[in-house]
């Protein structure tokens, strides 16, 4: 709160004049300014005026003046803050509009009948939309109010007496709108309630005063401009039926918020801001006394609003939390989502508070809608003292400091970072290699040769196909120039390693062709050149990453910010975000499935980026990928259960058990999920409901949507395999494992764990698993069973190449996994710690420490397993289906594994 150095009657000429008009007003202000004023007070004050015989428009003006005077007194005396001022004046504007619409509608219906919709046959009501700061509930004390009038359907009024003159709905609501504007804005002996601006309606001043939903929809689709998206972000219905408001929201939302990340909004808002700044500059040149515009000037209020709203326009289509109309709430949301740092947002909010407080004090002088610092020295000093400063210079010094912070933040977002496609590179070699769509193949080849490409002829052929392709030629000129500019930038950014350059260029061109028609993606790469550099590095490092990004270009957003990209995953927070977005999707199943896929892609891509930067070990990456799968499985189970009609309980007694790589927390980028389903529920409908739950879960996971799939699911390890039930009752699973399971099923159980669902079932499963694994076993029989299964796997995966298959060949990963499984089954009865699901590497070392195998050989085999997994990982990133390497590359590791195998099985 800021306490003025001046009293209200000295600081505000409006306040002093108003008090002088009636001796009783001083007491009224003194009483009203003791506490904040709210809607109930507005009603009481208005009732008092109308009871005295005043007509509604005059009564409302008198209430408005009392409210404003009370706000001035409360704020300048240090009893209120910006939040109270904005909330109070915005609530009063709502009250004034709603009260006048109700009264005028009743008069109109008496004179013309009730407007009825042609299609619905239902009565129609006027929806008054508050735009701008009124829409955001952040109105100025002396602001005009931006309004738009809409109504649901065309039709005619339904008359009930001969005295009523029938009107079309359009005529009715247009006349009602004119009466409302007059009732609120006409200047009388008591002033006005609010000035009204209707310029934001469809087609502006040349458009109809009131528009039907159909007209609004057609206008937004056909003629809606980028700056209108910015305006409609703030649109808030002040009057109207809730059902009609919901329909209007469905019309407006797709226009304002794109389903994809819309970085084209930056360029559009940059242009709009430049036009505003040019007009302000022109006015300041013509009228130097109007300088220091705290709203539209450099580092002013409008730039803070633009900073908040550009994030809304870019991301609001995918994140409903970014659709709030309040600038302050949106800024705090940006900090919470790490889109801006907490420090940046605190600085912006401090500046916003200072600038809005200053703006109000400029308006307190004469109740004028002004945003510029006064030229009169006396008024300048008055404003400074209202702000708590003893002199003007101190106020201007702090004003400049806040504006500098805002300007710097604004420039970091809105400065034109992309190099125009037409601008030539600086150095001679680069200039020679600058390509255009009219270049011949010979010219392109010569230029690529100058850049050091190993096979310039084939690269030139590929480039020419892209530059002269019908797809590129059909693009709008702006998009075509951006695409060519990106290609030229990329040619000079691809790593100089000649052997990889050609492949990287091919991957990049595939990617650019895939996004060519999405102007938002071209805008993102142009606005953020460092993102293009990251894309190039990623494509140079991994063919799999290149294909993944080409399929899911929406993930470009993940490459923008180092803080987000390099942050360690917070899986509890991620689980909460999954649930929030699923809840926000309502009952739209496809939307929910796409939400899960988008969240999966984003997290996977962050892990991929960290992996390619060398920030993650193989084990740590596998842990994260497994944790990611766990969260998504849990979220999917919960979401699917909510879609089940006639479900017999609100929370299912159902669990997903992970086997294989997910069970052992060794998941890779493209691993499928080996799972089984258990339930523990005696309700007669339970088997049917849980079977449907499992079926739908598999469908949600594996279905191809516009966002791809989540995971492939393998359920072959369920009891009795392909012939067994899809879901098993927990007691039946226990009986099967104890009495009927094959040894290979117990081998699989060594890498099984509770994944998601009912925690009590999970705990019971873990107890069953430990009991089964700790059963005493006859050593020779177990050895023969394991060897038999290993032989079958060999026969099922023959390797006819000269290379070493990291997974299946003798001395490979399967041998290590079988060794661990044998040791667990053989010795867990004596050493229960072997049943812990800690992974193969840790289990090998534990067996060495327990003396079950040679300690040194155990450590060497663990290192071999780590090496195999790392090599497998690298090969998969290059898009190879089989993980095979030259035999001499891993000869030492294979020999180590074979020695350990021989010591156990031979």
From TrEMBL:
Taxonomic lineage of the native organism: Bacteria, Pseudomonadati, Pseudomonadota, Betaproteobacteria, Burkholderiales
Assigned keywords, A-Z: ATP-binding, Ligase, Magnesium, Multifunctional enzyme, Nucleotide-binding, Nucleotidyltransferase, Transferase
Location of the region described as Adenylyl transferase in the Swiss-Prot/TrEMBL record: 430-906
Pfam families assigned to the protein according to its UniProt record, in alphabetical order: GlnD_UR_UTase (PF08335), GlnE (PF03710)
Gene Ontology cellular component annotations, sorted alphabetically: cytosol
Entry protein name: Bifunctional glutamine synthetase adenylyltransferase/adenylyl-removing enzyme
EC number annotated for this UniProt entry: 2.7.7.89, 2.7.7.42
Glutamate-ammonia ligase adenylyltransferase repeated domain ranges (all copies): 29-240, 533-767
One example of a Gene Ontology biological process annotation: regulation of glutamine family amino acid metabolic process
Gene3D superfamilies cross-referenced by the UniProt entry: 1.20.120.1510, Beta Polymerase, domain 2, Nucleotidyltransferases domain 2
Region (Adenylyl removase): 1-421
Role description: Involved in the regulation of glutamine synthetase GlnA, a key enzyme in the process to assimilate ammonia. When cellular nitrogen levels are high, the C-terminal adenylyl transferase (AT) inactivates GlnA by covalent transfer of an adenylyl group from ATP to specific tyrosine residue of GlnA, thus reducing its activity. Conversely, when nitrogen levels are low, the N-terminal adenylyl removase (AR) activates GlnA by removing the adenylyl group by phosphorolysis, increasing its activity.
Keyword Ligase: yes
Molecular function GO terms recorded: [glutamate-ammonia-ligase] adenylyltransferase activity; [glutamine synthetase]-adenylyl-L-tyrosine phosphorylase activity; ATP binding; ligase activity; magnesium ion binding
Family from the record: Belongs to the GlnE family.
Domain of life assignment: Bacteria
Cofactors required: Mg(2+)
UniProt xrefs under CDD domains: NT_GlnE_GlnD_like (cd05401)
Entry keyword annotation includes ATP-binding: yes
Principal EC category: transferase
Substrates-to-products reaction catalysed: [glutamine synthetase]-O(4)-(5'-adenylyl)-L-tyrosine + phosphate = [glutamine synthetase]-L-tyrosine + ADP; [glutamine synthetase]-L-tyrosine + ATP = [glutamine synthetase]-O(4)-(5'-adenylyl)-L-tyrosine + diphosphate
Domain (PII-uridylyltransferase/Glutamine-synthetase adenylyltransferase) ranges: 270-413, 790-882
